[in-house]
Amino acid sequence: MAIDKELEAKILRYHHVEKWRVGTIARQLGVHHGVVDRILSQAGMPKVERSYRPSVIEPYLPFIHETLKQYPSLTASRLYAMVQVRGYEGGPDHFRHQIAHYRPRPHAEAFHRLKTLPGEQGQVDWGLCRARHSPHYAEAGTMPSFRPLFCRGRRQLKIAEQIWS
Question: pTM above the 0.70 mark?
């Protein structure tokens, strides 16, 4: 997208004369900060590197890592209370968000996917329907092709029938 010369002149004036930052210029002119960066780099200005700002939680990271290593299931709210006693001044929501990045992840377990051919294995489920004060039991069977093979209902179901049928 082409930027007209008037907007380009405003960007350069705000940066050189008014000493505005890239974000401020972008917000005031209603353009993306990448556009402002591009105009300034085309004018011969070196790209302004964003300064690294340390997080509020950084001084407490060794303690957090050690505690999570020893107690991996410790809740973030309990950990927040422990760090707050040690001088942490940040809020609990930000702390919980940051702890999610440092919490140890469980290792993925290997598993073997069960593969069967159509018609080789099926499922049977039981259900209880309470209609008009008398229970009705339903049995439904399906095969892996997802077509119902049978469905039957019973008014009473005895334990012996359930085990031996």
Answer: no
